[in-house]
Structures are given as C-alpha cells and as structure tokens.
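debug: dumping io for the single-chain case to check the tokenizer round-trip. Nothing else runs in this session.
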Amino acid sequence: MIEIDGVAHVVLNVGEWPKCRAFYEALLPFLGLECVFSGEQNIYYVGGRTAVGVGPCERKHARRRFTQGTVGLHHICFRCRSRQDIDRAYLFLKEQNATIVHPPEEGPWAPGYYSVLFEDPAGIRLELNHVPGKGVLAEGARFNPAGDYR
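debug: decoded output
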C-alpha cells in the first residue's frame, strides 16, 4: 500500500474557449492559484497543493456543453479553509455572472459541510466547500451518500 499526497492536477477540455478562458483566468487567481503558463491553447495554474489546466476541446465538440450524468466527470470540488471563504466566493461568482446551481448552504455529506455549486460557461460543474475538523474521518462521523449531488 502507498499513501497518496493529494490530487496533483486536473485538466479540463472546454467548449466556449474564449468565455471559459476568461472565467478561469478570474476564478483561479481568486482561489489563490498562480498562473504558471498561459498560451494560446491552454492555461495552467498552481496553488494550494492543487493545479488546474484548462484548454479548448477538439474543434468538432466546441459548440457542445458539458452534460452532467454521462460517463466521466460529475463535478470538481475545491476545499476552502472557512465558511466565510464560501460566502466570499459566492459574492465573487455573482459578480462574474456565473451560473449558480445553489448558493452557500449546508449539506448532508459530512458534519458541518457547507458549499456553493456553480458552472463554468461550458456547463462544467464546480463546487467550493468547507468541512470543519476531520469531516467524515472524525470519530463517530459518517459519510452520507444519500445527499443530492444535483
């Protein structure tokens, strides 16, 4: 057995490249990630023991939107350090005219679970959450898979 040290990176292929690029160039620095590469066909940000790359999908798919519930990605969730961070992010997302799936709210997945769920311009679902303490790893805590993932 080994013990991993987190997720090294996530790379997204998006339709609506100009809109998505602008969206992620605003969102990722807001989340504390630093741009380490910005080219014509992709951007790459690193911070918080996380890296995110974004680039355009193949031209033949460029007009398609992400369809949640098909094979593959359901959503990406970035962990925040406090409930206040979730609230600040919500205000930021409203300023960016992001599609908000749900505003900041508590959820059943772990004790103290608090999150905001939104979409990028191509429809990819993104979540920001905060879970205090050890979350589902705390003594006596249990994961609740019955929550609505929307």
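debug: round-trip ok. Residues 10-57+74-137 form a domain with the 2,3-Dihydroxybiphenyl 1,2-Dioxygenase; domain 1 fold (CATH 3.10.180.10).
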